[in-house]
Amino acid sequence: MRRVAAILSFLALMLSILPPALGQTPKADPLRARLEKMGKDFADAYNRGDDKAVAAFYAEDAVVMPPDSDFVKGRPAIEAAWKGAHEAGMKNMRLEVVDVESDGTYIIETGKATADIQPAGQATATPETYKYVVVWKKQKDGSWKIIRDIWNSGPAAATAAKPPAHH
User: Fold this and answer.
1) Number of folded domains in the chain?
2) Three-class SS of residue 51?
3) Is residue 159 part of a domain?
4) What is the pLDDT of residues 31-76, one digit of tens each?
5) Does residue 7 form part of some domain?
6) Which long-range contacts (CB under 8 A, 24 or more apart) does 24-32 make?
7) 126 and 153 in contact (C-beta within 8 Å)?
């Protein structure tokens, strides 16, 4: 009898872990799918040069914290900042959602961004990677707007190893 119970327990365990092991896809996360769509729409607006549409993703009182810059507060200033990114040669933005957490009122999105940087006069674009955190807040009308956006440089592209410094 113990042997039968052990076999049944083993079979139950195998049935619980087998589907993921066989590569079956987990249930879709509708919140993640929504954020991926919003991220695609954001990047598409940026890539076509529509800074007003990009700024519309932000709440009126949102705060953006770009690298090596002061706080950018409010939608008009945020629109101007994205326009400045275009003028500096940032193009071809791509976003990848890495993690999502939500309590129903706020969403914390963590991700990776890639853009090509090609200032005026530079012959070719240089790809740059960034990591970011965006905080979305559900609005009274049910829409989601970004209230905080911060990013910084990701890992540097693979380069030749530098020799150690000598003292």
Assistant:
1) 1
2) helix
3) no
4) 889 999 999 999 999 999 999 999 999 999 999 999 999 999 999 9
5) no
6) 29/100, 31/100, 31/102, 31/107, 32/97, 32/100
7) no
